[in-house]
Amino acid sequence: MEGEPFLIVDFHTHLFPDAMAKRALHQLLENTRAYASLYGETRAHTDATAAGLTASQKKAGIGLSLVLPIATSSRPSPTLNDFAAQVDRMPGLRSFGSVHPRNPAFREELHRIRELGLKGIKLHPEYQDCFADDPEIVAVVREAAALDLTVVFHAGQDIGMAPPARCTPARVRRLRQAVPDARLVLAHMGGYRIWEQVEEALPELKVMLDTSFCLPNHPEEWERFARLIRLAGVENVLFGTDSPWADQQESLEAAVRFLEEYGFSAVEQAAILGGNACRLLEEQP
C-alpha cells in the first residue's frame, strides 16, 4: 500500500479487567462452541487483557485500538464505565462506554460517560435482550445523540447465539426514523451474515459500518462488501477486527488485500484504515 504514513486504528476490540479476563473468555468460548455447527469453530487470539491487546496491535502495526465494552446487567453500576475510562487513558488504547437499555439510571450514566471523556457507547441487542427499535433503545440513542456520543451496535447474527438477529436493517430503519440525528455505527459490515438485507436497505439508513470479523473470515463476500462500502460512502467505513475473536495482524493483512483488489485508492484506504476513526475519536491521524 503506497502513500504517506498514517495511523491505523482498529475500531472494534474487546478486553476485560485482568482479574476476570480468563473466566470471561472461557464462558464466551463455551457460548460459541454451542453454535459451532452454525458459525464454525471460534478461538481467542489474545488473553483478552489490556496487555494482550497491546502486544497484539504492536505485532500487527496497528497504532490505536478502540475497546467496546457491553453492559449486560440492567442494575445501575459505575464499575464498567469506570474501567472503560481507565482503558481510555492507556497508551495505544481508547474505549467507549456502555449502558443497559433497561438501566433506570441510563440518562445519568450517559452523562457520566460524557464527563469521563469517552466519545461513544456500545449497544449489543443480543446480550442486552432488546431489539434495536425497542423504546428502551430508542430512548438511550436519543439521549446519546443529544450528548454527541457515537453509538456502535452489534448488528446481525452473533456467533454465540442462535438466530434470528435482534439488530437488522429493518429495525435500524425504524430507529433512524425515531432518532434522525444519531451517529450510528453498525458493526460487522452492517449486519453479520444478513448482508443481503444490509445491501437492500443501506442507502436510507445513513449509518457508518465497521469491518470487524468479516474480511478475513468471509472472502466469499468480498464483492458484496466492496459494494456496501461504496453504498455507505468511504468516509463512513471503519476498519475493525473484533479482537480477541479475530487476529489483528491477519485482519489487517486481509483488509489491505481486499482494498487493493477492489480498486480503493491510497487516500480511500487511509480513510478506512484509520482516518475515519481518528475523526470520530478526535485523534491526530
Provide key terms for this protein.
285 residues, alpha/beta, five-stranded parallel sheet, three-stranded parallel sheet, 44% helix
Binned, the helix content reads 40-55%
Order of helices and strands: EHHHEHEHEHEHEHEHEHH
What is the residue-mean pLDDT, rounded to a whole number?
Answer: 97
* Overall spatial form: globular
Portion of residues in beta strands equals: 5-15%
User: Alpha-carbon distance between the termini?
Assistant: 17 Å
> Please, what is the oligomeric state?
single chain
Could you tell me the number of beta strands? 8
Describe this structure in words.
Strand 4, helix 6 and strand 5 form a beta-alpha-beta unit. The chain starts with 8 loop residues before the first strand and ends with a helix. The strands form 2 sheets. Strands 4-5-6-7-8 form a 5-stranded parallel β-sheet. Strands 1-2-3 form a 3-stranded parallel β-sheet. With 285 residues, the chain is an alpha/beta fold. 48% of the residues are buried. It has 11 helices and 8 strands.
